[in-house]
Amino acid sequence: MTTRTPLLKAEHVGIQFGGLKALSDVNMELNKGELVGLIGPNGAGKTTFFNLLTGVYEPTEGSIVLDNEKLNGLPPYKITRKGISRTFQNIRLFGELSVLDNVKVAYHSLARHSILSSIFRLPSHFSGEKEIEEKAVEFLKIFKLEHVMDEKAKNLPYGQQRRLEIARALAAHPKLLLLDEPAAGMNPQETKELMSLIAFIREKFDLTILLIEHDMSLVMGICERIYVLDHGQLIAHGTPEEVRNNPKVIEAYLGEEVS
Amino acid sequence: MATLKRTIGFWISIVLALILFVVVQVLISGEILNSFYVNTLFFMVINIILAVSLHLIIGITGQFSIGHAGFFAVGAYASAIMTMKLQMPFALALLVGGVAAAVAGLLIGIPSLRLKGDYLAIATLGFGEIVRISLLNIEYVGGASGMTVTHLTTWPWVFACLLITIIVIANFTNSTHGRACISIREDEIAADSMGINTTYYKVVAFVIGSFFAGIAGGLYAHHFYIIQPTNFGFLKSFDILIFVVLGGLGSMSGAVIAAILLTIVSTFLQDYPETRMIIYSIILILVMLYRPKGLLGTKEVTSFFKLRRAVQGGIGNDNKNTVA
Ligand SMILES: Nc1ncnc2c1ncn2[C@@H]1O[C@H](COP(=O)(O)OP(=O)(O)O)[C@@H](O)[C@H]1O
Ligand SMILES: [Mg+2]
Fold this sequence. Notes:
The complex is a heterodimer of chains A (259) and B (324).
Chain A: E1 6-17, E2 20-31, E3 35-39, H1 46-53, E4 61-66, E5 69-70, H2 76-82, E6 84-86, H3 99-106, H4 115-119, H5 123-142, H6 158-171, E7 176-180, H7 188-205, E8 208-213, H8 216-222, E9 225-230, E10 233-238, H9 240-244, H10 247-258
Parallel strand pairs in A: 3-8, 3-9, 6-7, 7-8
Antiparallel strand pairs in A: 1-2, 1-4, 4-5, 9-10
Helix pairs in contact in A: 3-5, 3-6
Chain B: H1 2-29, H2 35-60, H3 68-85, H4 90-113, H5 119-137, E1 147-148, H6 155-173, H7 176-186, H8 188-193, H9 198-221, E2 226-227, H10 234-247, H11 252-268, H12 273-290, H13 301-304
Antiparallel strand pairs in B: 1-2
Helix pairs in contact in B: 1-6, 2-6, 2-9, 2-10, 2-11, 3-4, 3-5, 3-9, 4-5, 4-9, 6-9, 7-9, 10-11
The structure holds adenosine-5'-diphosphate and magnesium ion.
């Protein structure tokens, strides 16, 4: 079904924090339109891998290429503008800003009106702000958040905060969306809704998604391919079926349960 | 609808401002206000400009600058040099004071704001002291005995500068650019990940704030006949910081009200500087106990009248340092 056009290519990526090698020799290829899972026990380096892809940290080895453009060394905001956006394991909303303003921030890079035009309230300020507002409201409707758009983000219930964070990441119009344990802290009902939301946005926005999940069973259902990290190294890669039966994976997860 | 209300609110503010201007002008021209009150009033407005300019840096953008008096000093001396040494007109002198302070802000801001963390606090603290000590040792501007300056600051100048400061900073704040700054305050890593050029906006906010501190310096220099390095020490920076903290980080009207109240308090305690510090400390402790988010918290005065949707907020914290 999917035509295999590569979108992201990570080759021999690694990073060292002082003496600790948090990731080494990670190779990953994502094709356009894929929904891929990244799993592994706690502390395996999954979040660190996202931090490398988004430029929070610069890899100490290897290269990351998106759509034939090398991303290594670019600041995070440039990487976002090139088409990667993310959510965070510990939700990072702009708590004191309204729900609407949270999404508006994501539209900032589209704004064409200058600082001076805002200070002097020139016509371009009003048209620019109006455009951002309309787009943001439209977006909140898709995520069924328009009825809370004037609430402060920090006052939303947990499930809605997660949804808002995904909405905000999508409003930055990424080609590749990175979701870091989006189901963490959710009850089974919320998790189910979240998974169908993920399937829905992937269709609607023609996205490639890389999904970190700690709970193996969760990703099995919706991902086409799965990468498994343990102790900073990829230990397996394949279809859910292949990964589930891989002895290394079973061992990694068993090891976690014991400790 | 919201736009209409906002427009009405805007015009009401303008009319109130004009009334205030005319009333005070009449009181001054009719010599109903004696010079003590006029002095206090001018000093109050200068403090408001300082408070609002620092509010943009700390309250909106979340960058702790604790040497604001340094930029105030740069503006004061630069404008005084313009009028006293180079015989330039006052308007130009004010502008040059602002620009000089803004350039200083740029030079301090670019290296220290590129880094995440509290480098700005350290850099600005150092900057304030360096400015003060340099001025003490520059004979051209009078060294420790200071520089005498002609009295040129009049009510229309003070009022116009106040109005421009408030309009510029409010307009900046209520735009996508201000939202970018607030997002940095709330969570810099998330702001980065939303495509905000965080370094750029931190520097912009810092430079705008420094500019208006410089303008305040020009007004100050041409009002008090003499400027001396001791007027611009750390205690002055501390005073300005208190306005912003007391007013509620993130609230411009809070900073204005705090500046007004504390100018009155400190005027009455002018002859007892130690008592003043004690009373300041007590006020701060009481505020921290009873209103830990400052007088207005993160609200604006207008939000009490529901004229506009409040967009600002306080300092966010939680998981700022590790990225997970
Ligand atoms: N900034 C950092 N400095 C030092 N060590 C780090 C840093 N970020 C992550 N690590 C370490 O890297 C390892 C992987 O962490 P992480 O990527 O958060 O794991 P996961 O998301 O898979 O649970 C952990 O041992 C963690 O302590
Ligand atoms: Mg993690």
